[in-house]
Amino acid sequence: MTGEQRMDDALLVVLLLADATIRVATPLVLAAFAALYSERAGVVDIGLEGKMLAGAFFAAAVASSTGNPWLGLGAAIAASVALALVHGFACITHKGNQVVSGMAINILVAGLAPTLAYAWFRQGGQTPLLPGEARLPQIHLPGVEALSGIPILGPVYRELIDDANVLIWLTVLLVVATHWLFTRSRFGLRLRAVGENPSAVDTAGLSVTRLRYQAVIITGVLTGIAGAYLSTAHGAGFVRDMTAGKGYLALAALIFGKWRPWPTLFACLLFAFTDAVQVRLQGVPLPVVGVIPVQFIQMLPYVLTVLLLAGFVGRAVAPKASGVPYVKER
Amino acid sequence: MAQDAAQGVTGRGFGRPGEVPGWVGYALLPLLNLLAALVLSGLVILVIGENPLDVLALLVTEAVGYPEAIGYTLYYTTSYIFTGLAVAIAFHCGLFNIGGEGQAYLGGLGAGLVGLALTGWPWPVAALGAVVLSALFGAVWGAVPGWLQAKRGSHIVITTIMFNFIAAAIMTYLLVDVLIRPGSQSPETREFDPGVWLPTMDRALGWFGVAIPASPLNLSFLWALACCALFYLFLWRTRWGYEIRTVGRNERAAVYAGISPARNIILAMAISGALAGFVGVNEIMGVQHRILLNFTGGVGFVGIAVALMGRNHPVGIILAALLFGVLAQGGGQVSFEYPTVNRELVMVIQGLVILFAGALENLFKPRVEALFRRRREWRGGGHDGGTAHG
């Protein structure tokens, strides 16, 4: 084996890892940024998991019945927004406990999705496997052939950038747009204000309730997209418990990112990278320790979360009014 | 009148204490919440194409309609009492323990290790050992997130959720690679020596000449009831319980009263974990007689619903645990009868109950309380109504 070949192989491994990282990170980023909107506006959302699961189920169910993944995406968003509105109704209108409401939504959907899947498709709580055209498409870029001769750039373009799912591109846009929104736009600054000091916003003549509902609806839209990504872009159909804790990981990423867009993105990529490594490490003997049991590798992201939250994050300072219902002064 | 004016200034229009009979808060409101949850569940049943009333009738019959069913229902109730108490004590300290699932799982490991080790010993020794070790394992699994919350500021909700996942991974590893019965394909341990099994209720009552049909209901039910009494005594009759409740009500006031929030957070989470761990005694020593995968099946999450419905009080928790026992047993049976209904329907009802009894508790409360206030004013003539609200 020549040196050049070995380098190519190494590059390919790195690229495959990066590719896997991006694919796993996409739903995490969508969900974490979803929570960013509602938590910056002062509404804690632990119900990401449930909303994603609802999105995943309805996307797959509608895509499977109509054959159209875009209708599926629409259904996912609708279902997820509906749940977000329930959360808003409980937490904003009725000033209920936000963590309890989120947990209720998680448990409700964990039951509802398989119940409906079971009744509608009779496949033991799953939806049928989706054919290619009922899944959200990948975007094929021109110039793969032309660039393939160039070292590094060619393989990077071919493996990473070309044929990425349309939702991955959407997520990239979302990250940039969110950063802009929270630093430059009037709406974003108002959202931040309503999470820090709602009575000041109220005094300025803006409706706290309205702003918080808007934030919660954006959360619903994004978690719906995250769910649709799981079942109609990354996967090919809904399976039971498909989110597998991603909603909670996204929330941890948000806290680790201290409720700011770029650090949150970084945290999501870190979790996704751990997951990508974890898949590659399974069954591979390591120096000194030998083969690590697969269960220990699988719990890596969770252990990492605990350690990060306990140690390296510093005191995470949540938006000041986060989790506190706003009671207008009488 | 001056007092009324002061209350008006501080903005306590709704829910003024002493104006609404106690049973409204403890009975009427939970029932209204439950009713709302059931109505929505009925809608879900309609959507999947069955008659909600038929399903409900079958559910109740299969849960309490005959002695054997009652045994099964009480067996589920036992676990729900443990996790309900676990969630409740954390609530009293101002903490939300979502980790009951993982704590119960590890509690089962503790109980199971006792069962595996004590072959040939009399069952009371094994039962005592299982109670101690399951409490210890569960307590550790609860206290670590408590410590992280108290000392490192990690959000307890996130940490306990992560600990659920970590517990699941550890248990899978132990059952697949370490504790598995040699030569077996399925990841579970060997069966314990029948001598150390926790006696079932039918066997125990048989010693006194009372005959009831066989069911998984075992002596841990009595331990669950004892835990309810101990829970009450601890929380409302001891200094430690008082400190925990003080921290839960107002951490800053606690500090000024010389009470350490950190110490009490860790203590409350340890007790919470221990209570959840007792699920292992019921499931592993009482029913399964071996350690197996996923025997908890969501009891930790049901505990949240039980604590919320039961208003974090042992009596309420027993009643709520009974309700969820009925749902679990009846729901399981319904899924056998109806091809379109599966067990997850029970989770839908649980989720809705948590939503209405927990997050939406203010949905009916102001209206119902206002109704009672109006009625009192109307009935009481001018003694306060005329002046305060005139």
Automatic annotation (TrEMBL), chain A:
Alphabetized, the UniProt keywords read: Cell membrane, Membrane, Transmembrane, Transmembrane helix
**Keyword Lipid metabolism among record annotations:** no
Q: Where do transmembrane segments lie in this chain?
A: 12-36, 70-92, 99-121, 166-182, 299-318
What membrane topology term does the record carry?
Multi-pass membrane protein
Q: Which CDD domains match?
A: TM_PBP1_transp_TpRbsC_like
A single MF term (Gene Ontology): transmembrane transporter activity
Main localization is: membrane
Cell compartment(s), UniProt: Cell membrane
Can you supply one Gene Ontology CC term for this chain's record? plasma membrane
Q: Which domain of life is it from?
A: Bacteria
Q: Does the keyword Translocase apply?
A: no
| Cited PANTHER family | GUANOSINE ABC TRANSPORTER PERMEASE PROTEIN NUPQ (PTHR43370:SF1), SUGAR ABC TRANSPORTER INTEGRAL MEMBRANE PROTEIN-RELATED (PTHR43370)
Name of protein: Nucleoside ABC transporter membrane protein
Q: Which organism is it from?
A: Azospirillum brasilense
Its taxonomic path starts at: Bacteria, Pseudomonadati, Pseudomonadota, Alphaproteobacteria, Rhodospirillales
Automatic annotation (TrEMBL), chain B:
Primary location: membrane
Q: Name one GO cellular component term.
A: plasma membrane
Which UniProt key words apply to this protein?
Cell membrane, Membrane, Transmembrane, Transmembrane helix
- Tell me one GO molecular function of this protein: transmembrane transporter activity
Q: Where in the cell is it found?
A: Cell membrane
- Transmembrane stretches in the record are 23-48, 80-98, 105-121, 127-144, 156-176, 207-235, 255-279, 291-308, 315-333, 345-364
Record bears the keyword Transmembrane: yes
Give membrane topology per the record. Multi-pass membrane protein
InterPro entries membership:
ABC_transp_permease (IPR001851)
What protein name is recorded for this chain?
Nucleoside ABC transporter membrane protein
